[in-house]
Specification:
This protein is elongated. The protein has a single domain, classed as Immunoglobulin-like (Sandwich), CATH 2.60.40. β6 and β7 form a beta hairpin. The strands form two sheets. The protein has a four-stranded antiparallel sheet, with no helix packed on it. By secondary structure, it is of the alpha+beta class. The chain contains one helix and seven strands. 17% of the residues lie in helices and 42% in strands. The longest helix has 19 residues.
Length: 109
């Protein structure tokens, strides 16, 4: 009986982890005042979005809508430089997405 409980517990954890690892994405929607759009997160998931733009850092918390999407704006930061730029979104239910732009990859004029 203990073995069956262990197997069922392990299976439940595997299914839970698989459900939380949906293909979350993070995209840059606007680079003047950084606007990021997340998709594929768990509905209602609390997500911490962190941004590094050159030497500037900022973070915000958002809640994914029932569709698993969110939009977050960092008005004080700009991605309009040739410096490295990146963002990470980590949800409290296991979803994770990143966006990266290498140094020297300047945005189109």
């Amino acid at each position: 009986m203990k073995r069956l409980a262990s197997i069922l517990g392990a299976a439940a954890i595997a299914v839970s982890a698989a459900g939380a690892s949906t293909h979350a994405t993070l995209r840059l929607a606007d680079d003047d005042a950084i606007v990021l759009r997340g998709a594929g997160f768990v509905a209602g998931e609390h997500v911490r979005v962190s941004v590094v733009a050159g030497t500037e850092h900022a973070a915000k918390r958002v809640i994914a809508r029932p569709t698993g999407r969110f939009t977050v704006r960092f008005a004080s930061l700009s991605a309009n430089t040739c410096a490295a730029f990146g963002a990470t979104a980590i949800g409290d239910k296991g979803s994770r997405a990143t966006y990266k732009r290498s140094p020297g990859m300047c945005p189109a004029p």
